[in-house]
Amino acid sequence: MWRRARSISNVVGLGEILSVVVLALAFVIPVASDSPFTHSVANQTLIAITATFSVYIMLRMDLLTFAVPAFMGLGGYAVALAGLRGGVTDAVALTVLSFAVPALVALPLGALILRLRGVYFVLVTFVLTEILLLVIFETPGLTGGSNGLVGMPPIDLFGLSIADNRQVLAFAAGITVLAAIITAALTRYYRQHFASIEENEVLAQSLGLVVWRYKVIGFVVAAGLSGMAGFLLVNMLLTAHPTSFSPISSVNYIAYAIVGGRSSILGPIIGSTLLVWAANIFSIQGEYSQGLFGLLIMICVTLAKGGIVGTAILLWERYGPAWPWGAARASGLAADGARVRP
Amino acid sequence: MMLLVKDLEVRYGGITALRQVSIAVNKGETVLLVGANGAGKSSLINAVIGLVPVCGGTIEFDGNRLDRLACDRRARAGIGYSPEGRRVFPSMSVADNVLSGAFGLGRERQRKAFAWLCELFPLLAERARQPAGQLSGGEQQIVALARAMSSFPALLLLDEPFLGLAPVWIARISEAIRQMQQRGTTILMTEQMARPALKLATRGYVMRGGEVRRSGTIAEIRELALAEEYL
Ligand SMILES: Nc1ncnc2c1ncn2[C@@H]1O[C@H](COP(=O)(O)OP(=O)(O)OP(=O)(O)O)[C@@H](O)[C@H]1O
Ligand SMILES: [Mg+2]
Fold it and tell me: Which of A208, A338, A339 sits opposite B72 (nearest CB)?
């Protein structure tokens, strides 16, 4: 039994299995609770997790991206326009659309900017969101400008209308599980490629790895996942508004990934959950939460580089009982190449 | 002609590391580059794989110009590279490290390559799942070497494969290199302490101050090297 579980975890990774299981538990929330506050925060958490998966994918290749809100905006506005102007309400079609539009934008863009090294890439991703907002403000005819797009029709899934809070939340849980599966599939399938890029890009290239190609693949999928998060956000608010996709919100997603732990797919889930709930419970608004998250990022990068998951693994390996699956990395709980050491 | 380097010039900023270097390596040959520290051996190897840009001259591999290609394309054209100083991916497992030299191969051929390398170096099988950063320096050298061999390259570039190794390991690596020779692999290797390498090579070049000073058969190189105190 152990051996069988172990051989499965070799292929899929324990972290990936756990993350899908944990996210599937979110389906329980709309049934178990009828507090609107809980529903709202759970919804925000799921959106944050989906968006943070894209930060996680880029961190797997040691790349930092500030472009998450830009691609969320592209996905969100694509869905809003399809609903309002095109009358599309089919959830499956809209999901595909929210993934495809940002991914298609990311393809040529990534091919261009992923040749940039280090800080230049980071800078360009930051500017991307600014450019998107500028485009939105300058095209009020199409995007509603600073008023945004309001009055979207509710979506429906296989003929079932997703109208009330509970259904919206359950749908968000479904999309987040899908996002987790996509992230897991990508990062496990290209495990060695991403790890060697993360650890030593130049060496990887001298061994014949087309570094740039894998970076583009990661960037495109990450953009698609951000787009799906944008869809969830628009679907929750039934509005696409520029303030939902502010450039500064990119710091939040980076904070979720780093605080949760960049070394495992569980990191974005734990980081988003903790920080979104903390921000809501202590009702920390806007700039204050960004200030707090900034502080947390500083604490993590100086004291606990592995974030919550990385530090937990480290402490377990040092003091805990022997791990039934062998070393954390061998069992896929932590990704290869991940810097979990403090 | 497997590798033909003509009038190669390499500069780092203002410093000229290689000046008018020309070497030729025939198919199936093992050629040794000897020279003291700073002679330019690594610069030559790195220019061939594409890690340093060239300022002048040409590099031909199997009849095709290499000097304009990105280094991943050179590797995939059939060049295996083992860098100086045990460069492994420290947090990747030993097995993944070895196979990272064979990204392009299918799973089946990767499995075969790994099985063959494990026979040569039992260490790889014993430590397959351990992070490579946890191995000793000499063990990491084995991993880097196995990685370069894992794609069965037509040309193998070995930058100081014996550096800092115990005699047992030197014997084992020599044996592995011999097996590569038997497979018909062309090898270009560098060495300061040339003794073990002299037993493997057929021809050699003596480098000094960024230039090729002498070339000859291995017997001639041995005599030259002895006379000029390279050994
Ligand atoms: N990255 C670099 N930047 C600047 N100068 C360099 C660089 N790499 C090498 N050099 C210079 O180029 C010259 C040749 O160096 P190279 O590493 O090719 O020598 P080598 O023969 O491999 O020496 P060793 O036996 O010590 O490895 C040296 O004078 C060195 O200072
Ligand atoms: Mg050298």
Answer: A208
